[in-house]
Structures are given as structure tokens and as C-alpha cells.
Amino acid sequence: MDGLDRSRAFLKEVKRLVIKVGTAVVTRADGRLALGRLGALCEQIKDLNTQGYEVIVVSSGAVGLGRQRLKYRRLVNSSFADLQKPQVELDERHVPLLDKIVLWLSMIHCLLDVTSAQLLVTDNDFRDKAFRNQLSETVQSLLALKVIPIFNENDAVSTRRAPYEDSSGIFWDNDSLAALLALELKADLLILLSDVEGLYSGPPSDPKSNLIHTYVKEKHQGGITFGDKSRMGRGGMTAKVKAAVNAAYAGIPVVITSGCAPENIIKVLQGECLGTLFHQDAHLWAPVKECSSREMAVAARESSRRLQAISSHDRRKILLDIADALEANEKLIKTENEADISSLANSIRVLANMEDPIGRILKRTELADGLVLEKTSSPLGVLLIVFESRPDALVQIASLAIRSGNGLLLKGGKEAKRSNAILHKIITDAIPDSVGGKLIGLVTSREEIPDLLKLDDVIDLVIPRGSNKLVSQIKNSTKIPVLGHADGICHVYLDKSANMDMAKRIVVDAKVDYPAACNAMETLLVHKDLSQSEGLSELIVDLQVEGVTLYGGPRASSLLNFPEARSFHHEYNSLACTVEIVDDVYAAIDHIHQHGSAHTDCIIAEDQEVAEVFLHQVDSAAVFHNASTRFCDGARILKGSGQVVDGDKDIVYTHKDLTNES
Questions:
Q1: How many CB atoms are closer than 10 A to CB 549?
Q2: Where does the record place the Aldehyde dehydrogenase domain (predicted)?
């Protein structure tokens, strides 16, 4: 967004802000004041004051500066003999006295054109309600007069035994003091200035650490490795994060950013994505990937159990609500991916109206008198489905999972990332709270897949839908059962008895409808009696008109003058295919068994005996008669009369049960 974060738009509405200046921001490496840096900060504060902002400053650095100054003076005023004596540790309650004055005077010097007032407080002061009311009224009066209040803890009179480590008080350092003041004084924003850009995932010096732009408590708490605290401060980044979280979840937005870079305060208020933002609504702005792989899988399992517990009518209603939501959000979906989604909505309604697949009695067996064993259909549990591209697949898979009572984790291809995200949101928003939107989790990073594949105690089945490489990698990387097919080398056998008009429609559809699909035709086998026929010549022309590149096996390349294919065992996934001539149906079956992948194979024939031989002897997951291979969706045997998919334009799916025939 050109440096502007949508979640920071509210910053432009800020009027009153508390700015905490950290120790490391105003000191040099030798412990002395960095007057140039301090001057630049004060210039920003002056500008904000002039622009009408109500600025409250919490300054730090007094302890460190005082310690350095007193140690230096003790050193130069000591004899050599004094230096040989054991050194008495300085009482940190006393060292701020000198440099509180020095620091305050330095800020006044930098703020010559602006009136400022120093206010020293202790945590005990805030135990007194009357003090807090008076403090609020005093600050309100100062701000009305364009006076800048500068707060600091009055360490010299603090009653805590170890004020820099004791966190039992109302506040325990200047970061927590700044957070407390932001709440008491009803600030719109708290800015905690540091010597680094913000909160990192690890020590800022580690090149593997990344700046966290928005802190999400559910995601980041406990997962960050903090580096060393600043050389002169009390708590470093740990203290800042603790204070920021407390303030943010009490309703005060917080930004931790560098005070060393020029104009950072101004840029933050302009909405630029600098530093780390803490906000009570941050979890709502976070991207989809906001929980670990295990948390996502466990949530899907819990939601699937709630889904299984509701009635078939209620599951059907969820699907109908999703279909309505898709149509209602058609404009939004098309913004992310220009596509016609009406067919998706219609397919979901068809699925919703199908017979409930859960709880069907598939078989009943009497084991003994009064002892009956029933085999019933039931959900699998949690499915992990990895698919490439094709955002329509997300809708189809999610709908099937809901209808069958299964939890679901989805990982789509990066090419459809935006479409997948919006479709996932629309679908999960339509799932009632009684089930929970976490029924369907969307995995957004490829790096999460290895972690998910280890969760054999939570995920029940992995279904990869994509390339040979994708399926093979997943099969080799998990103990979870995998339902996948590594190759989609599908054949169409054109028998001598084929109706050539039907054959042309089926072959063109099997290759052209979706060339990259796993059920697209990759090899066309032709009976030898058709090799010189007019019908085959017309079919070849039809394929070439559609842009299909044809390669031949040894016989076809010679007879039909095609370039020879490098291998029969090749999945083109494009507008290309291999053609080969065979002697008969038995030769076709042998070819399929030798070079195929046992995915989907089809025969086009009017001779029923030949067709039955093919259907019963081809050892593939799906075998078809007179229908395009593109219909494959798990059927073992499909018998048609010339049907083609053609983008589902000219076919109406009825899904009507028929009686069994002997």
C-alpha cells in the first residue's frame, strides 16, 4: 500500500498522545546526552504542539546518565589508593537527582519556543484517587495553555526495595508509567520510542529476525526471542512490549518505533507503517495464517464433530447459505478474480439437495440370534487437501466436506491466492457459530505443509490434487493415509465400431475442455481399421483447429506423418497428445496397462461386447464407455451415449438413483 497500512488509518484522527523517550534514544555510546538527537525529537514535539496536538512526554535516561556522571566524577576525584579499595555500588535511587535536572534543562533548551512543565511521580501517588483526579485536571489545564507536561518517576523517594525489578506496584518503570498515564489522561495514542525500528521476531542484530508490523497477542505472545536490553535502560524491549500490551488491551493504541530516525513521530501520525503497532483489534486485521498448523488442524477437528452432531437439514441449510453468499458477493469475488461464479452456486445447491451421505446403512449382517452388525457411512474426520490453482476447487471441496460432515484444511495454489482467500472468507462466514468457521482452515504458506503432514494424530486423510510432482512429494512425506494419484495419463480408445460423430465430440472434449486436468486425455488409441478413414482425418483436423499438437507412436507417426512422441508414459497437461494405432481392443488394453497410470480410460464403441471387454479388463480407477474422460470424479464405471463436459454448458446433472440390473 505504498507504505500506508489500512489498519493504521485511525492514527490520522489522533489528538492527544503520550510520547515516551527511551534511555538509548537520548544518549550516546559513551553515556553522554545525544543533544543533536534530542534536539530533533524536540523539534517534532514543537511542530505537533503548533499543529494542535496535545503532547505529553515521559522522559527516561536519568538513572543511566546520573550513574555515568557520578562514576566519572568519583573517578577523577579519587586517589590511586582509593581506587584499590573495594568499590561501593551506587544506590540507584540517588543517581538520578543530578541528571534529571540536566535532562529536563536540556529538553527546555531544545523547546525554547514552547513552555514545558516537569512532573515527578511515584507509583504510590496513583493509589490516591484524589491525586489522580488532580493530576488529570492539572494536565488538562497545562495542555489548554499549550504547555507540554514532561513526566518522570521520582526515583529518589520511591518506597520500593528494588524499583527497577519490582513489578508488583502500579507501575515499575517509565514504559509502564507511560502506559498508565496514557490511560489516566485518556490519550488517543501512546508512542514508545526506542533505539531500534520496533519489535522483532528475534534479537534485532540477528539477520533472521523480522520486524513485526502488527503485534497479535494470540500469535506472537511467547514466540519472540528478546535481545539484550539497552545498555543504560531498565527493561529494554521486554518492558516496552509488556507496557504496550497492557495499554492496547485497555483501549489505548501503541506504536513502538525508533526515536533515532528523523520525523518518525510525524510519520506515525500520518499513518505510515513504521515500527510495531499494538491494538486491541489487531487479531481482526491479521491475515488468515494466524495460528499454528496444529491449532488449525485441532480447530477443524473440533468443528467437524459439531458439524456431525447437527441434523442433515441443518447441514443442507449451511450449503444453501453458502450458495446465497457466493451470489451476494459476486462483485467482490470478481474483483479478486474475474470469473463467473453462478455455476458454483448452482452446483452447491444441487449438492445440498442430494441424499444425506452420513448415517446410511450400507449393509446389515446377523452375527447371531439378536446380534446384528450394521455397516454405516460416517465422516472421515479432518481432511487436508492440497490443490493447485483452480479457485473453483476450493468451493467444491468445501461444499463436499460440509455435506459429509468432515473438517477441512485447504492449501491452494499461489496463482489463485486472492480468490481462495475471499472465497474462504465468504464460505466460513456463512457457517453458523454453533459449528464454527474454523471447520475449514485455509493454509496460506507452502512452508506450513511439512508441519501439517506430521499431524497424523489430528489429520485423518490427505488428498493431493495436482501434478505428479506434488502428489509424489506428499506421499513420500507423511504417515497420514494419502488418497492421491501421481499421474493422469488417460486414454481414449477408438474402436472400429465407433460412431465417428460421437467420437469427434468426446475426443475433442476429453483433450480441450481442461487440458491441465488430471482426467484430460493424453493418448488417443485408434483401431487399425480406422487409420486411413475419413472419420479419423476429420477428427485430427478438429483437434488441430482447437490448437492441439499431435505426436505419434511408432505406427501412427509413420502412417499419419506425426512427429514421434518421446514416450508413451507422458502427461502433457497442455494442448498436446499422443496418437497410436492398435490392432484391437485387447491390444488397446495391453497398451493402457503398460503405459497408463490407472487413472481414467475410455472406449468409444457401438459394439457392446467389445465395450464390456474393455470395461471389465482395464485395471484403472475409472473406465468409461461413450463418455468424455473429463467426467471422472471417482466413478468406477461410467456408461454414456456421447456426453461431453464442455464446461458444463449443455448437461444437466440429475444424480438420480436407478435400480440395479443383473
A1: 13
A2: 295-531
Q: Which residue has the higher pLDDT, 624 or 159?
A: 624
Residue, of 336 and 324, whose pLDDT is higher: 324
Cβ contacts of residue 91 below 8 Å, gap of 6+? none
**Nearest alpha-carbon partner for 103 in 44, 28, 158, 26:** 26
Phi and psi, residue 41, nearest 5°: -65, -45
| Alpha carbon distances (Å) from 662 to 73, 245, 363, 624, 659 | 107, 72, 19, 19, 10
**What kind and span of H or E run contains 395?**
helix 391-403
Rounded to an integer, what distance in angstroms lies between the CA atom of residue 456 and that of residue 462?
A: 10
Q: Which of 510, 583, 593, 496 lies closest to 548 in space, CA to CA?
A: 510
pLDDT level of residue 235 (50, 70, 90 thresholds): low
The yes-or-no verdict on residue 230 having pLDDT over 70 is no
Is 409 strand, coil or helix? strand
Whether the per-residue pLDDT at 223 is higher than 70: the answer is no
For the record, the C-alpha cell of 606 comes out as 457401438
Over residues 441-460, the pLDDT tens digits come to 998 888 888 989 999 999 99
Query: pTM for this structure?
Result: 0.49
Asked if 426 and 330 touch (Cβ cutoff 8 Å), the reply is no
Please return the burial class of 168, using the count of CB atoms within 10 Å of its CB with bins 0-12, 13-18 and 19+: exposed
Separation CA 74–CA 69 (nearest Å): 9
